[in-house]
Every structure is written in structure tokens, then in C-alpha cells.
Amino acid sequence: MAEIHKIILFRGAIETLSYFSRQLEVHFKEKGCAVFWVDMSNAKESAKKLAKFCKPKGTAMITFNFIGLGGEEAFVWEKGETIWEAMQVKCLNLLVDHPLYYHKYLEKKHPGMTVFCLDRQHVAFIREFYPWNEVHFLPTAGNLLLRDPGEAASKESLIPYLERKYDVIFIGNYAPLPDLAKHFPMQSKEYIDYYYRIIDDMIAHTDLSLHEALIKNLREEIGELSTEDLKTGMVSMVFLDLYVRTYFRAKAVCALAEAGINVHLFGKDWDKLICAKRENLIWCGGQVDSAECVRAVQNGRICLNVMPWFKDGVHDRIFTAMLNGSVALTDDSIYLRELFSDGKELRFFALKQIERLPEIVKELLDDPETAERIAAEGYEAAWKAHTWEKRAEVLDAYLR
């Protein structure tokens, strides 16, 4: 393959993913690459300039969640081939959700595309159900506060632990469970009851990944199924993922509030959460962007995270907490247990024992010296290996 000197990145679709890409940009500019930004809010205009920018076999695109690879009209030429195919652009596609959400895209062959997943079980899932895709494991990284486009974030002096404004923060949106249930497919009561049985099974068996839980319940209900029938069944029930993760998100926040612990919430619709001690929940407004999230973490002593059902991977909130000097408090995964030790670089809690969460938080708040040490250990570990610059180095190696 020719040497890659041109990189295409995407913005204007999902704010969080654009922010990830801004941090990747820094590495490639430092390596001397020219960077072209596709603005998905005006994709046709960007597409007009792409052909001039691209050098056949010397250009790569780095995207998330199939943005630009989803058959968007702006990137399809007259003969039906995409600009990526015509210009022989190498495509690195990072998925930050379960692959089931991208079933219709993974079913197709995308020449020149390599997929990266943030959970090793997701990698195994694609290799089993969509084996024509090249796929590798690449966890997300922590976010830093960026100021000028293309400028690296420095290892800033942190707000001292005891001078931070918030004891406990949680970053993420809320959706009332009855509202989510309204989006279940309009089917018979029998189907609805079946969905709730799967939800109950996932709540009872928190070690099962999304696809493991769905396959288990499909086989118990129907018996042996072909690979194609399994995929069809799982895709039709992927909405259960959001329901279960929201259930535990609300349960964790309420457990703290009802134990008398103040929790500052950054995200939309937390005013709709039903909680016995709502006075201990401080809602800091609606939807927040990535920079606002980082600023909140920089002022938080403890950053609570509930994983989006990643059982052998990681969410960027954990590394963001560590990079910004907060104690990351999260449910665990196989991957996280390999990386870190409870009480050293972060603190773990178990979804099955969520009632112990207030005890863990009170231990940290009552012993600021220990909490500060954990935050410092996490900070060093994250700076060493879990910035977006480090992830860019891995992606760069695939291109070279």
C-alpha cells in the first residue's frame, strides 16, 4: 500500500464523535498528514472538495459508527460506487455501540474498510456473524479539554481534589422507563411479556453481554435457530439494551440520593427521574456537549459511571474521569479488571450489589487522602496509555 499522507475526518453528525475526531486530528497533523474535515451538516459541499483532496491509495478516512459509510447520497458517484471506492480510500471505522445497531451496514461488504470495536466480545460477535468484515479491538479513550482546533491538550495542572465543587457527578442522559417501553414494537401482549422476561433475565444475570442474553432467550423460546434467524431475532430486540442500561443508571443514582449523598447530574431529562430523595439530586441543566462534560469532571471528586452493557470493554467516561483527576467509580468488565485494580487506579462496584454503592462513595468522601491517591494513580495510568493520541498511534500503525 502507498504511504498514507492524507486523512479524512468527520464532524457535524454526532457532537461526541466529532470531539473524539478533533483529538485524533492532533496526532496526524503532528505526523505531517494533511487533514480534510467532512462536514456532515453540509455533506454535498464537502463531497465536491473531496475528489481534489484525495490521492488514490494515499488517503485514509477515520470515522465512527459508519458515518460516511452508510450509503449517504453525497458520497455516491454516478455509477453507484462511493467516492471511497473510486479513490481507493482506506476506511477505519470505529464502533462505539454494540454491532447489532449497525446490522444493515455490517451485512454489506465495504472494500477497504477495517472495523474497530471497544469491547472484545463485540469483536468476536462480528467475526461470528459478519465474518467478511476485518475487525479488531480498540477501546475508546478519555476526553481532554480542547481549545483551538488541531492543538494538543497539555497535561494541565488539575484543580486540587479538595477544592473541587462537586462530591459526586454523573454525566449522561436519562429517559423514563415507561417512555422507553412505549417504543417497544406494537405487538401482542405475549410479545411484550416476552420482552420483559428478557429484561428481567438481563437484570438477574449482569455478566451476560447483550447478544449472549438475546441468543440465550431466543433459543429457550424457539429452539435451535440458523445464524440468519438469530441475527434477525437479535436485531428486532436491540432496543432492550437501552432499557436495561437506563434501569441501572437510574438505580445507581437513586441509591446514592436515598443514602443522603448529593449527586450532580449533567444531561437531559433528569428532572423526570422518580426518586424518594430528589432533594439530593442536583440537575445541572439539559444536554451538555463534550467540553462541558470535561469541565464538570475537572470539578468532580468522584465520577460515577454505569457501563452501556460492555462486558469486556470500556466507556470513554472512565478514562475521561481519570485524565481529569477525578476518582472513576464504575461497574467492571473483564478488560477493566485486567487493566486496573480496585482501590488503586479507580473503584469498582457490582451491578448485582448496587446497594453497596453508597458505602463505597462514603468511604471515599470520608477518606479524602485515599481518594486523592486513587485519583492521582488513575491520572498517571490514563495519561500513559488511554488518551486519543495513543489510540491515533494504533490507527496510524494499521495505515502504515
TrEMBL record:
Alphabetized SUPFAM superfamilies for the sequence: UDP-Glycosyltransferase/glycogen phosphorylase
Ranges where the Spore protein YkvP/CgeB glycosyl transferase-like domain occurs: 250-395
Source superkingdom: Bacteria
Pfam family, one: Glyco_trans_1_2
The protein's name in its UniProt record: Glycosyltransferase family 1 protein
Organism this protein belongs to: Roseburia yibonii
